[in-house]
Amino acid sequence: MDLRRVPASREKGWYLALIAPNVKGPSYPWLDPSRLYCHQQGLQDCIADLLQPFCEDPIDLVAGIDAMGFVLGAAIANTLQKGFLAIRKAGHLCVETCTQPYTDYSARQKLLEMRTDAIQPGLRVLLVDQWIETGGTMRAAIQLVEQQGGVIAGIAAICIEDSEGGKWIQEHYKCSQCVPLHLMPQFNRHQLESFQAFGATPD
Predict the structure, then answer these.
(1) Contacts of residue 68, Cβ cutoff 8 Å, sequence gap at least 6
(2) pLDDT digits (tens, 9 = 90+) for 134-180
(3) 73 in helix, strand or coil?
(4) What one-character DSSP code corresponds to residue 22?
(5) CA–CA separation, 23 vs 6, rounded Å?
(6) What's the average pLDDT block by block, 10 residues per block, for the chain (203 residues)?
(7) Which of 28, 91, 145, 168 has the highest Cβ tally under 10 A?
(8) Per-residue confidence (pLDDT) for residue 200, from 0 to 100
């Protein structure tokens, strides 16, 4: 889809066709969601769709997960006029932090860290990431927030795949994603029909 064109009918998830496929091989993620951020209306509608389930819920703080969760998280925090907390990969914060180990989508062992002075007991936190594939990173972020006494107000991501971890998160927390039900099989297969418009698909 052209980055300047806005469709006449903007149904939920129309902007997902902006997502680009991986053309560089298996050492890269299977798609690049960040292309939709280049589309002004696409980004606005994505944020609106993610926030719709929480429109009547109290949210005190938005937290985004390193790194692409920073983009959506900061945009959502600005829309809500709330503060933004960056949950980082270990080794980047020069202040007192708490840490949580996790296994990412590539099966690598890593650490997340979060500053200890941002969350007070009872604070309601909306957790945001770009994508939830296996759920390992998001579950580590949930643990960091809850260990500090925070309450998970909700979880938002462009897509929450139907993996074991993704299902667990949706069963235990209020979640929001942009992918309509009829498109979920394509996302779970990691092959979108919209990729055909790019003239190239991953190997």
Answers:
(1) 33, 34, 129, 130, 131
(2) 999 999 999 999 999 999 999 999 999 999 999 999 999 999 999 99
(3) helix
(4) P
(5) 25
(6) 90 97 94 96 98 98 98 98 98 97 90 97 98 97 98 98 97 98 97 90 48
(7) 145
(8) 58
The Cα angle at residue 178 between residues 75 and 167, in degrees rounded to 5 = 110
**53 residue type, one letter:** P
Q: Can you say whether residue 49 is alpha, beta or left, with left for phi > 0 and alpha for psi between -120 and 50 degrees?
A: alpha
Longest dimension (CA), the chain: 51
Residue 163: how many other CB atoms lie within 10 Å: 16
Q: Please give the backbone phi and psi of residue 54, each rounded to the nearest 5 degrees, phi first.
A: -105, 15
Q: Encoding tokens for residue 56?
A: 């009547």
CA gyration radius, the chain: 17
- Within 10 Å of residue 85's Cβ, how many Cβ atoms? 22
| Tokens matching residue 112 | 């997340």
The pair of three-digit structure tokens given for residue 66, joined into one six-digit string: 């390193």
